[in-house]
Write a structure and sequence with these properties.
single chain; about 90 residues; alpha+beta; four-stranded antiparallel β-sheet; about 25% strand
């Protein structure tokens, strides 16, 4: 995880466990050369370990292969990101 992502995680009161859940259970989409891991309502309902408070968590990683988390944020309105998420 990058220094930037760590600062954002602590600054936004997100825990490392939530980041791990996003990497494991989040939907993945690719945009602007990065992998976006997203936890939405469907993932909260589908996967028992995903908590309701994880809804809207989005991680941006350099790539799936490298896996460095560049930044993260929580945004429950996915349309604002400009991403088209795959149907789960």
């Amino acid at each position: 995880m990058s220094e930037h992502a760590l600062r954002r995680m602590y600054g936004r009161s997100l825990c490392l466990e939530a980041v791990c859940r996003a990497l494991r259970f989040g939907r993945v989409t690719f945009a602007r050369g990065a992998a976006h891991f997203v936890l939405g309502k469907k993932e909260v309902k589908r996967y028992e370990p995903v908590r309701p408070g994880d809804n809207g968590l989005q991680l941006i990683a350099s790539s799936i292969e490298e896996g460095t988390v560049l930044t993260l944020y929580q945004n429950r309105g996915f349309t604002a990101t400009g991403l088209t998420l795959p149907q789960a």
